[in-house]
Structure to design on (421 residues):
C-alpha cells in the first residue's frame, strides 16, 4: 500500500510521539487494568496511542517446529495491519504478544520464509518485513530516566518493588529486551519512577505458564518459590508485564505463600505519574505512606 | 524406555532421528551431556526423563523417547535453550518430540480444568497438546 491510499488515517510514523498499539486478548479481558493504566500514563507522557485496526490473535505461543509455517500466519497478519498504517513500530503491553509477534517478525527476515508466507496469504498485501515490535518496557527505556523522573511527580515513594521478568521478555536471546540472565531494564524504569528496585534470584525463572491448564500443581510450586524469593529479598510488591504470570502469581498462589501484591508494569507507571491512584487493597498491603 | 539398549549404525541413521533433527532444526549430537539443561530446568522434578537424558536417548536412536512424559511437562520457558553451552535449543527438541507423537496420534495429556483460566493459558496449552 502506498502512502497515497491511507490519507484518511494518521501518519503514525511521522511524529515520534505517535504510537500504534497491539492489545491482544488479555488486555481486553483479565488485564484491562493494565491497558487502562498504560493508556492514561502514555497520554500523560505526551503520546498519542492508536489501537491497531482489525488486530487478531498474536498466536500466543511461538511455533518451535521448523515446518510449522501455519502458525506464523496470525502474527504476520498483525504486522501487515501495522504496515497498512504506515507504522514502523508496533507497541505491545503483553509479554506473550511481544514474544510471538517479535519472533515471527524475525522469522520473516529470512527472505525464503517471507516469500512462502506472502505466497500463502495471497489475499493480503505482501509484508515487507519492516515493522519493529516494541514492548512497553523498551518504550520506557527510550523515554529515558530523565524524562520519567521529571514526569513522576507522585513517584513510587521508595516502595521496594521486585521486577518479575518471567520468560517471554527475555528468551530467546534474539528477542530479549535486555540481557537474558542479568536484565536491568525493568529495574531502571522502576527506579526512574521513584521505586527502590529489589533484585531477587527468581525474577527470570518461569512461573509455569500454560502448565496452569495441564499441571497446576507444578505451577503452585513455582509460584510459591518465586514469591518466597521476592519476599526474602525484601520486595513489598511485584511488577510483571505478563498476564499469564499475573494469573499464576495471584490465582495459583498456595496457602501460606508470601502475600505480596502483584501488579502490571503499566499500573505502577500510572501510579507514579499520578494519573491513577493505587487501589486501596494494594496500598494497604504495602503500607503506603500518605 | 527400553530396558535393553541396542545401538547400531542403523539406529543412529534412523529416519526417526533424522525427523527429530529436521523438525527441531537442532543437531542432537552436539550435546556433550554436561547436564546444564537439567540442572536449571524448573520442571525436571516432574519429568520421567531429565532433558539431558532425552538428548542422550536420541543420540542413541532410541524411539522409546516418544513415550516419555518429559516433553509434555516442558513449559517451553527456554531457560535450557539460552544456557546450553553447545547451542542446542533443547526446547525445540522437546517440541519436535511432541509434534512427532501428536502426528502419530499419541496425545498423552488429559486436559481437565480445575477452574476457569485466561484465554492465553488455554490457547497456549491447546497449541501444545493438539497437532
Amino acid at each position: 500500500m502506498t502512502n497515497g491510499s491511507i490519507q484518511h488515517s494518521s501518519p503514525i510514523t511521522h511524529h515520534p510521539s505517535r504510537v500504534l498499539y497491539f492489545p491482544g486478548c488479555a488486555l481486553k479481558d483479565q488485564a484491562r487494568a493494565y491497558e487502562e493504566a498504560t493508556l492514561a500514563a502514555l497520554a500523560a507522557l505526551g503520546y498519542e496511542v492508536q489501537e491497531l485496526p482489525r488486530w487478531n490473535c498474536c498466536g500466543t505461543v511461538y511455533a518451535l517446529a521448523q515446518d510449522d509455517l501455519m502458525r506464523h500466519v496470525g502474527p504476520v497478519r498483525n504486522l501487515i495491519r501495522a504496515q497498512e498504517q504506515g507504522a514502523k513500530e508496533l507497541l505491545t503491553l503483553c509479554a506473550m504478544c511481544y514474544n510471538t509477534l517479535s519472533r515471527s517478525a524475525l522469522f520473516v527476515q529470512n527472505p525464503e520464509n517471507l516469500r512462502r508466507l506472502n505466497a500463502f496469504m495471497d489475499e493480503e498485501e505482501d509484508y515487507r518485513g519492516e515493522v519493529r515490535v516494541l514492548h512497553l518496557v523498551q518504550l520506557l527505556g527510550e523515554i529515558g530516566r530523565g524524562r520519567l523522573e521529571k514526569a513522576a511527580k507522585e513517584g513510587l515513594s521508595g516502595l521496594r518493588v521486585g521486577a518479575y521478568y518471567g520468560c517471554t521478555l527475555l528468551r530467546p536471546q534474539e528477542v530479549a529486551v535486555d540481557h537474558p540472565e542479568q536484565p536491568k531494564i525493568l529495574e531502571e524504569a522502576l527506579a526512574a519512577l521513584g521505586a527502590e528496585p529489589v533484585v531477587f534470584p527468581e525474577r527470570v525463572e518461569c512461573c509455569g505458564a500454560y502448565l496452569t491448564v495441564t499441571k497446576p500443581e507444578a505451577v503452585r510450586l513455582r509460584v510459591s518459590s518465586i514469591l518466597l524469593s521476592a519476599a526474602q529479598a525484601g520486595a513489598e510488591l511485584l511488577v510483571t508485564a505478563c498476564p499469564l504470570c499475573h494469573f499464576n502469581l495471584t490465582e495459583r498462589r498456595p496457602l501460606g505463600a508470601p502475600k505480596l501484591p502483584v501488579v502490571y508494569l503499566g499500573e505502577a507507571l500510572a501510579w507514579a505519574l499520578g494519573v491513577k491512584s493505587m487501589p486501596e487493597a494494594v496500598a494497604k498491603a504495602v503500607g503506603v505512606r500518605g | 524406555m527400553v530396558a535393553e539398549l541396542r545401538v547400531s549404525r542403523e539406529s543412529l541413521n534412523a529416519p526417526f532421528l533424522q525427523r527429530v533433527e529436521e523438525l527441531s532444526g537442532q543437531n542432537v549430537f552436539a550435546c556433550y551431556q554436561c547436564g546444564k539443561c537439567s540442572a536449571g530446568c524448573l520442571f525436571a522434578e516432574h519429568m520421567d526423563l531429565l532433558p539431558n537424558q532425552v538428548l542422550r536417548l536420541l543420540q542413541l536412536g532410541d524411539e522409546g523417547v516418544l513415550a516419555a512424559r518429559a516433553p509434555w511437562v516442558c513449559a517451553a520457558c527456554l531457560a535450557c535453550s539460552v544456557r546450553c553451552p553447545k547451542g542446542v535449543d533443547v526446547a525445540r527438541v522437546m517440541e519436535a518430540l511432541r509434534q512427532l507423537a501428536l502426528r502419530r496420534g499419541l496425545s498423552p495429556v488429559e486436559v481437565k480444568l480445575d477452574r476457569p483460566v485466561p484465554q492465553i493459558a488455554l490457547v497456549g496449552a491447546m497449541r501444545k497438546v493438539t497437532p
In short: Chain B is about 45% helix and 0% strand.
